[in-house]
Sequence to fold (466 residues):
Amino acid sequence: MITGHFTLPKYGNAVLLALTLPLLYVISRYNYNLFHSLADGASIVIAATVFTIIWNGRHLVDNDYFLYVGIAFLFFAFWDLLHLLGNKNMGVFPEYGNLGPALYIVSRYVLSISLLIAPRFIHRKLNSSVMFALYSLVTLFILLSIFQWHTFPVCFVEGVGLTSFKIVSDYLICLILTGAIGLLLINRRSFDSRVLRLLVASIGLSIATGLAFTLYKDPFDITNAVGHFFQIASFLLVYLALIETSLTKPQDVLYRKLKQSEKALADSLQQVDSANAVLKKEIADRKQAEQALQESEKKYRDLSIVDDLTQIYNSRYFYQQLRAEIDRVNRYGHPLTLLLLDLDDFKVFNDAYGHVEGDQVLLRVGQVIKRWLRHTDSAYRYGGEEFTILLPMTSSADGVVTAERIRTAFRKEIFTPESGKQVRMTLSIGLAQYRPREELKTFVHRVDQLMYQGKKSGKDRVCSES
Fold:
């Protein structure tokens, strides 16, 4: 059950990691190929997601270190995917033998060298087109050296183990990553302190990954598994530093300098107001500065309460408005109805067609909802594929009418995630009317349960208490 701010544990990520690692260890003992696929798959998904978030927010990024890292992570994800497919027993490149170690080394070189270069763009503008071209050319050259020219050094020999090139490369990569940590610390004032700590810790775990991978003699022994556990932990920290922070506190990653500039501007205005309020020119300057500050604050306020993808309000603003509406209901006795909408089988759609197409579905949900709302109603992206709608001055029976209109309209929407293929999606909707003096948490829980009741009853339906 989704309960918004009420179930976010302080150490939720640590608990999740503590529960996941033992399970992955058991999997590694019984089916190493599955374990290896899960470990590398997690790294690939996180790296690709970092690129997606930062690339889509590149116009807001004021520290091009993150833009460079985002582009580098896209190419790392490509090489890590090839590494996953190239391991023996995967059967993807049988004529090339065990390509896993060689492709792993390439992915590690791409990651480490990129992290070493990225600090150069903390105070410089990055030409993303040039970077894409350079990375693409290097990628093409290495692909040809492995698959066409067969000139890439051998990294693993069956029955013998790792080659000298593989071992030396791992140590060299660890040295490069150490340099990347040093450059981050030198430029630490350019980063939010939490983001900096997570990035440094992530690179440190990546160094541990490389050291572990110098010790195995067989790609399926315990030392190799330990290296993958370090890799999982490293990319979990990448997730926390760049994905979670970008979504929950974008001002700490995407436009940190703007936040600092606003604070500096506010401090300057206070000094001008107290010391020079009597002079006309300074009064005019103050008015101009105040107007600029108000525009900045409005922009920041809009960014903090509106979901960037769907352009409807976010869950933080939902709880503010819900409390205000409940206070109004308790004061005047008017009815208030809450709708909770959830996309049916959205994970299946995402897994089949990817997050970019999934985003299009979420965007369309927001558009359909806004078409059927009155000016007094308000809609919110509650989390993931869930949405909420507040209907003031509306009974539960009237809320059912609105919910059915939205559900029916969305069911008619057609998506084309692949050429020549049409897909329709559906919504399950729960709704309830507020009871006098009811706790906010209890009210949301009731509606949440009604939505899940609709899911259990076959999906694509509206479920209310009446």
